[in-house]
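Course exercise 7: structure representation. Students receive a sequence record and must write out the corresponding structure in token form. The form below is the worked example handed out in class, using Phage tail fibre protein (245 residues). Read each field label carefully; the graders check that inputs and outputs are placed in the correct fields and that the protein name is recorded exactly as given.

STUDENT ID: A-19
EXERCISE PROTEIN: Phage tail fibre protein
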Amino acid sequence: MSSAITALGQTRINQLRGEEKPLVIDRMVLALVPGLDPSQPVDRNQQMPDPAHIVHTHTIDDAHKGYVNSDQVVYSMILGSDVGDFSFNWIGTVEAVTGNVITVTITPETPKRKTDLGSNTTGNNITRNVMMRFQDAQALTGVSVSAETWQFDYTTWMTARIGEHDGDDGAHRDIRAKISEHAQSGEAHQDIRELLVGHGHNASDLSGVVGVLSEAGGAIIERGRNVNGEYVRWADGTQICWLRV
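STUDENT ANSWER:
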């Protein structure tokens, strides 16, 4: 994956600094552009792709804008299983006033599927973040929510739900210990589902972990409940945790 501020984006940043006006990013555009190589540097001279290649436009609300420090801001996009079907390999952040593409991110081709109850097709959920880094980024963008407010200890949350569901015997204490061990080491967590099922949890009752939790205690974007049970969405990629209780 490669990402960069476009040449026009850099010009716009400098212009707004001089005018003492804010840079407002209000949407991400997704496109499937032929011939892109995510291992290569982004062409900073590009702007919006051919309309025929644009597959989705996502509005970014203020709750999904956060600052990391004075020079770094993050914009997050969450696409639920009610969005699709399409694939994308290009993500652009767009300025509200001018429609200029401020940043471009090139990714491997990624499918986005919508749940279709008629055909019994399960959709997928995708989270993508774009970090913008330049001097005084927080001040220029006016982003007022610290990304630290998104922090969530998923280990505490998950193990608490396990305890509520099944009690607190030795097997469940072992599960909590294993999850804690993974969190401390920072290893990938895709085997937690197998760990839970291995301790006797019925897969029909406990859906476990879907996707890959690649960063323990990552930034949470959303918590809620749907037909699958409770879910947690993180801000550091496609990390999604589902737990049926």
